[in-house]
Design goal:
The complex is a heterotrimer of chains A (292), B (277) and C (226). Chain A is built from 6 helices and 12 strands. Chain A is of the alpha/beta class and 292 residues long. In chain B, strands 6-7-8-3-9-10 form a 6-stranded mixed sheet, with helices on both faces. A 4-stranded antiparallel sheet of chain B has the order 2-1-4-5, covered by helices on one side. Chain C is globular and about 50 Å long. In chain C, strands 6-7-8-3-9 form a 5-stranded parallel sheet, with helices on both faces. Chain C has a 4-stranded antiparallel sheet with strand order 2-1-4-5, covered by helices on one side. By secondary structure, chain C is α/β, with parallel strands linked by helices. Classes of the chains: A alpha/beta (292), B alpha/beta (277), C alpha/beta (226). At the A-B interface, α5 of A face α4, α6 and α7 of B. Chain B: InterPro entries: AAA+_ATPase (IPR003593), ABC_transporter-like_ATP-bd (IPR003439), ABC_transporter-like_CS (IPR017871), P-loop_NTPase (IPR027417), PhnK (IPR012700). Chain B: It holds the Pfam family ABC_tran.
Chain lengths: 292, 277, 226
């Protein structure tokens, strides 16, 4: 892919990046707090990750190795488009290897492989306000955050149990960050929630809603729950069909038109790396170079 | 269970003790609110003692709702003090206290019953969730206990237990109003503000609601301020009456005395204007 | 128990040209514990007005109305309410209750209001209703649907549920048959025996003669230059 030189590095002009970096610094200083920022028009529609893209643009340097995943996979449309975009406007090196990446932009997943210090995980966020569905007034939700009036969040979980017998919220499961702000972790599966206490920096960008928030390394992130209905990380019923992993988040794949199906790791890099290391699942063939 | 049981136990005799209480629960001095040059309410002062129910009557535009909203912290008065007997620090001016503190009062010691239940309920949340919200807001985190409290309170306001998971939009107007009362009283408040609580309900439903409120006021030893234009409602519910006209208090006194022997010209007019049934 | 002196009262009708109607001047009355005083005088002489002033229902213009040491003419609303709760009972001619409340609860309410045990209050209410010949089948219904005589008996039962040290009775035997009239007069005698001070209005001369220790003609308190 050839780099386009008509744009500033990483598409945004330096003043805009400065504005976003300031918002990011504030967000890191007040973990979980939604910082308003002047979201720019990006050359892609809202809902395609404009928030995450702007955050990535503000943190990327020419030396970075960039990875983009969508639902855990590097090869889906959204991920490919964003990777191509930054390839053209920033010329940064792309990678699919979690361990090698310095900046990872994600939609709806946290990689299985634990992230380490020095890495940055950028989330694409559709609706940053966890209280939004219960309280439509922005003035009121801001006040509720300011005064830590979070009873309403539990009303949502109460409704879940009343209706389904258990907390049925399976993604975008609300968390409390650093014992202070209640935060929407973006629509990641609740399976990923416990991973949010990590060594890497986590940045969240919501383009349409014009909000940035962040979780600094080693910050406590607690999933909300009831004493008698504690938070439960959904456990997959079977191991990955390809690599045999028992600790990863699985996608269901329909394999034929006769109802045949298989469960495979949603994190394609994790699965490939394991198979590379010789792990084989029930339906997996031994890994060959270039096959993935 | 624990929350409302505690309030019930401790209040079994509080209507008794409260009459002996020397300190007012709410002490209002010189409260005024102006809308530009127009008077909302002017220089209102009174003391409300624990266990007392005070009615504020007057025609539309007399300033009674403005006053209620100033007292309940929904509106900032332009002048005056609203001293409330807080549990921690005794009498404290709610006008000058910090907003978090005032909002905390709003979901613990105070309750506000709106005329339109839609203003006081979350229409998209089940009846149980509506009642449980105040408990969760003050830190209840045990689903089973919250649900038990909700069921107990639905029973107290005469809503069938099998409606606990229905949304209020599926309830009749009278049921919505009773649900609003349950939602407000579940944390055992000491002072209830009511804005035309029986307005918009048909007469038979009103009677049931009045009966219910009277019982709850006595059982829980509640103090209440009820704004209404319905003199029959205050006769049945209120111990004392305050009559307002054009933002000013024109007469106060014992409810039956004000209604049966009104002194001010406006009160005489008000009382004589009621259609006899 | 009840000490009244220098009591005066006039009505000002603001909406009828500010007409001033003086109704009482120099009213005085003294009722000891265990005594019953009957108010007499022609209709409109001010018997009910005086009684209402003692209860705090009408505002006194001047003078003192001491009931159990509280001056009703000057007391705060909450003091009057406490007085009504603990000291001063009133059986009016009309029953005014919240619709839908069962008769038994209506009668038990004064006892519950002073913190009596639920069971004790209901037992006492049931005994009174029984004595006043209100059929048991009606106890669970609201008295608003009852006949005039039945309502009056419910009203009396309510007035005698709690042992008030002072009682005001406005025509307690009106519209009652002979049997029930006897029950009411017995109740009054019993109240006197336990030391209650009673002020009553009785048009029924025989009843008055039986329970009243003294008669006070309120015509004497009528303002002269009316």
């Amino acid at each position: 892919m050839t780099k386009t030189d008509h744009y500033n590095f990483a598409y945004l002009d330096e003043q805009t990046k400065r504005m976003i970096r300031r918002a990011l610094l504030k967000a890191l200083a007040v973990p979980g707090y939604q910082v308003p920022f002047a979201s720019r028009e990006m050359p892609m529609p809202y809902g395609w990750g404009t928030g995450g893209v702007q955050v990535s643009a503000a943190v990327l340097t020419p030396e970075d190795r960039f990875k983009v995943i969508d639902q855990g996979a590097d090869d889906t449309t959204n991920a490919v488009s964003i990777r191509k975009f930054f390839g053209r406007v920033a010329g940064v090196e792309a990678t699919e290897r979690t361990a090698e990446a310095t900046v990872i932009q994600t939609r709806h997943r946290i990689p299985e492989e634990p992230l380490i210090e020095g890495q940055i995980l950028v989330y694409q966020v559709p609706i940053p306000e966890p209280l939004r569905f219960l309280e439509p007034r922005e003035t009121e939700t801001r006040k509720m955050h300011a005064l830590q009036e979070y009873g309403l969040m539990h009303v949502k979980l109460y409704e879940d149990i009343a209706r389904h017998g258990h907390i049925a919220t399976a993604y975008a499961y609300p968390v409390k960050v650093a014992g202070r702000y209640v935060m929407d972790p973006s629509p990641i599966p609740k399976f990923d929630n416990p991973k949010m206490e990590m060594a890497a920096i986590q940045l969240f960008g919501a383009g349409r809603e014009q909000r940035i928030y962040a979780v600094p390394p080693y910050t406590s992130v607690v999933s909300l729950d009831f004493e008698d209905y504690p938070f439960q990380r959904m456990k997959a019923e079977k191991p990955c069909a390809l690599c045999g992993a028992e600790d990863s988040y699985l996608d269901e794949v329909i394999v034929d038109d006769a109802g045949g199906r298989m469960f495979v790791c949603s994190d394609t890099d994790y699965c490939a790396t394991r198979r590379d290391d010789g792990h084989v699942g029930a339906m997996g063939a031994p890994y060959e170079e270039g096959q993935a | 269970m624990s929350v409302q049981n505690a309030s019930q136990e401790s209040c079994r005799d509080c209507s008794e003790r409260s009459w002996a209480a020397a300190e007012p629960l709410l002490s209002v001095r010189g409260v005024s609110k102006f809308y530009g040059a127009r008077i909302g309410c002017a220089d209102v002062s009174f003391d409300l003692y624990p266990g007392e129910v005070m009615g504020i009557v007057g025609e539309s535009g007399s300033g009674k709702s403005t006053l209620l909203n100033c007292l309940a912290g929904h509106l900032a008065p332009d002048a005056g003090e609203v001293q409330f007997d807080t549990r921690a620090e005794g009498l404290k001016d709610t006008v000058t206290m910090s907003e978090p503190e005032r909002r905390m009062l709003g979901r613990t010691d105070w309750a506000f019953v709106h005329q339109n239940p839609r203003d006081g309920l979350r229409m998209g949340v089940s009846a149980g969730g509506n009642v449980g919200e105040r408990l969760m807001a003050v830190g209840a985190r045990h689903y089973g206990a919250i649900r038990e409290s909700a069921l107990d309170w639905l029973g107290r306001v005469e809503i069938e237990a099998d409606r606990v998971d229905d949304r209020p939009s599926a309830f009749s107007g009278g049921m919505q109003q009773r649900l609003q009362i349950a939602r407000n009283l579940v944390t055992g408040p000491r002072l209830v503000f009511m804005d035309e609580p029986t307005g918009g309900l048909d007469v038979s439903v009103q009677a049931r609601l009045l009966d219910l409120m009277r019982g709850l006021v006595r059982q829980m030893g509640l103090s209440a301020i009820i704004v209404t234009h319905d003199l029959a409602v205050v006769r049945l519910l209120a111990d004392r009456l305050m009559v307002m006209k054009s933002g000013h208090v024109v007469e106060t006194g014992l409810t039956d005395q004000v209604l049966d022997d009104p002194q001010h010209a406006y009160t005489q007019l008000l009382v004589s204007s009621v259609l006899q049934v | 128990m009840i000490e009244i002196d220098g009591l005066s009262k006039s009505f000002v009708l603001h909406n009828q040209g500010g007409a001033v109607i003086p109704v009482m001047e120099g009213g005085h009355l003294s009722v000891a514990a265990g005594a019953c005083v009957a108010l007499t005088g022609a209709s409109g002489a001010g018997k009910s007005t005086l009684m209402r002033m003692i209860y705090g229902n009408y505002l006194a213009e001047a003078g003192h109305i001491l009931v159990g040491g509280v001056d009703v003419a000057r007391a705060e609303p909450r003091e009057i309410l406490a007085l009504r709760r603990h000291t001063l009972g009133y059986v009016s001619q009309f029953l005014r209750v919240v619709p839908r409340v069962p008769t038994l609860d209506v009668v038990a309410e004064p006892l519950l209001a002073v913190g009596a045990d639920d069971g004790v209050a209901r037992d006492r209410a049931a005994a009174l209703l029984e004595r006043l010949n209100i059929p048991r089948t009606l106890w669970g219904l609201s008295p608003t649907t009852f006949s005039g005589g039945e309502q009056q008996r419910v009203n009396i039962a309510r007035g005698f549920a709690y042992d008030y040290p002072a009682l005001l009775l406005d025509e307690p035997t009106a519209s009652l048959d002979a049997a029930n009239r006897e029950v009411v007069l017995d109740l009054i005698d019993e109240a006197k025996a336990r030391g209650a001070a009673i002020v009553g209005i009785f048009h029924d001369v025989a009843a008055r003669a039986r329970v009243a220790d003294r008669e006070v003609d309120v015509t004497g308190f009528t303002p002269r230059a009316a």
